[in-house]
Amino acid sequence: MNRVLLLKATGLVTAIAAITLLVPGCSGTPDGKRQNDWPADHAGPKVVVSFAPLYSFAASVAGDDAIVKNVMTSKGPHDFDPTADDIALVTQADLFFVVGLGLDEKKAEVMRTRSGNKNMKIIELGEQLDKKDLCEGFCTHADHGADHKHDTDPHVWLSPTHAAKLVGFIRDELKSKDPAHAAGYDARAAAYIEKLNAVKAYGTEKFKDKQDKKLVSFHDSLAYFEECFQLNVRGVLTKKPGQDVSNKEMTELIRICTKKTSPVRVILTEPQYSTSSQGEILRKELVNSGVTDPVLVEFDTLETVRPDELTPDWYEKKMRDNIDRLAEKMK
């Protein structure tokens, strides 16, 4: 092939490649969120969830009877802003599962409005929990009186017990939307709840012989995990992710953690945030105050996910990983 023909051939290949990238359906985002990724030949419900734990729950119940897609990946519900691809995704969705409780429902409403899909139902799963099953956020300051209140902690998915209840709500919504496959949703939900019960049993066994269950969490997120596994969260580094700890808050945290009668040595950090610096400052202060062997332990609150890791069993694996890392460092 002479040089002119070679250049023409190369140009043709380049043009075809460019056109392929522009034609809908030929390319999608890595996590398959584009609108045109909804299967055209699937008659079942089209379900969207806000972030990864809800994907595991919904996909486990849906099986092959419904299509489930996840919105948030590298940014979790505290930091997420919907993109054009996210808006495109929900234009055809029937159901949108969110936690609610002040965490992600407003972003879902924005997506519904911008997509023009008025028929999409947004289901706030956390709002369906009994009020007695909800916890207040952690108090990060000392001055409070009888009327002192905090917002509800929305991190209900970090308790396998609460997660099982969310799965039941998802099952009921799918049955209502698609009654022809109700038996399948019932069976798969029951099987998945058994797996969640096994995660709880696993954690209970891991922590049962620990004599010191005190810890400091990175952000205000562990009330339900603490309750489920009978741990003792004595403080938090920051009320909200990305918010720096003030000098006053750090001083109070050091005071709490260095009490001679009940020192705290376990400090949790989170992989999705740059937490090591604040956690290390606290750890060093504990060392200087005579606390024996203070340690940083990574705890994933499951708010972000790598798209290639997202599977129905992702939640179980991640929760077991959290339990293993924490139990290893507790005494």
Number of helices: 10
The succession of helices and strands, N to C, reads HEHEHEHEHHEHEHEHEH
Sheet of most strands = 4 strands, parallel
Assign the CATH superfamily of the largest domain: Nitrogenase molybdenum iron protein domain
The name CATH uses for the topology of the largest domain is Rossmann fold
**Cα separation of the termini:** 73 Å
How many domains, as an integer?
Answer: 2
> What's the Cα radius of gyration?
23 Å
CATH architecture of the largest domain: 3-Layer(aba) Sandwich
* Mean residue pLDDT: 87
In short:
By secondary structure, the protein is of the alpha/beta class.
Structure commentary:
This protein has 331 residues and is α/β, with parallel strands linked by helices. The model is unreliable at 1-36 and 140-148 (pLDDT under 50). The radius of gyration is 23 Å and the shape is globular. It has two domains: 35-126 and 151-203, Nitrogenase molybdenum iron protein domain (Rossmann fold, 3-Layer(aba) Sandwich); 209-299, Rossmann fold, CATH 3.40.50.1980. It is 42% helix and 11% strand. It has ten helices and eight strands.
